[in-house]
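Figure caption, in words: inputs first, then the predicted bound structure.
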Amino acid sequence: MRAVVFNGPYDVSVETVPDARVEQPSDVVVAVRAAGVCGSDLWTYRGQANVTPGSRIGHEFVGEVVEVGSDVRGMAVGDWVIAPFRFSCGECEYCRSGLPTSCVAGGFWSREVVEAGQGEFVRVPQADGTLVKVPGGAPSAERIPSLLTLSDVLPTGVHAVTKAGVSSGSTAVIIGDGAVGQCAIIAARRAGAEEIIVLGGQHSDRKSLAEQFGANLFLSERGDDAVEAVLEHTTGRYPDHVVECVGTGGSFDTAVKLARPGSTIGYVGLPHGVNLDVARLFARNIGIAGGVASARYYAPLLLDDVLEGRLNSGAVFTAELGLEQAALAYQLMDERRTIKALLKPEAV
Ligand SMILES: [Zn+2]
Ligand SMILES: [Zn+2]
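Bound structure (zinc ion present):
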């Protein structure tokens, strides 16, 4: 079978690797129909994630079950499934309380197991706990990209908005215009926000997608200029909610400066070089909540809305390529020539 392999900084290729097969009774093998390239895969791609060369890569995939271990109860050959970006047992205290990212027996693709999402087939451990089954058999081709967002970016956007407590009729600021920020716009709209202000960059494709998803105002200012631009727009009133989807020190700084006294900042950006101004948080009673999103928890809650076309988060995939063109997909994402890339194994 073919799969994407990270060879070193700025070098990924599609290689022939050992065929996926059931190894434990709780495994299934999934034939991948669509896999995503994630912003966090770019950390690996750029050599900033301490990943061993030769590792497989990718943690977002949907597909069809083609082989089932003898202990698997919840799915059969032919079922369509969504794989969250982390596998989990479904039975421990964290899985049962809606926090499968803290599963005591779980782990990440290509870290705790060698398997990863960008390939023709994937052996999925603890399949009953890990996978989310798509009801009704094979989905229409049109729905597949949105189903794929349930692996990571849509649950992550929803987590940020949920933790920020975005409420009906409110004003929400979303920091970030990548796939997660875009999904946070969808989530804020879904939560009933009346005005959504996005702090993004200079790319017109991101601005138009944000507007398509429901942003009322898209600002390209950064740092204190962004804070000033928002407050000018709101005539000095601090926004009801701030949602942080980037993870840099600058982004957190902006979030803290914009946060309304008494509010909670929702954050899902993987933190890099963040020093929080805790004195300001203290003085203004600002809370911080969020972290790594449990896609396995959120995906079933969002699945019906995706299948019935009420959530069209698949529009974040602005490029679709064959699996063999994975190197090009990474290049396009690295150079910000596409928001997010979808890979389709040729075997389909
Ligand atoms: Zn991802
Ligand atoms: Zn667990």
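The chain has two domains: 2-152+294-344, 154-290.
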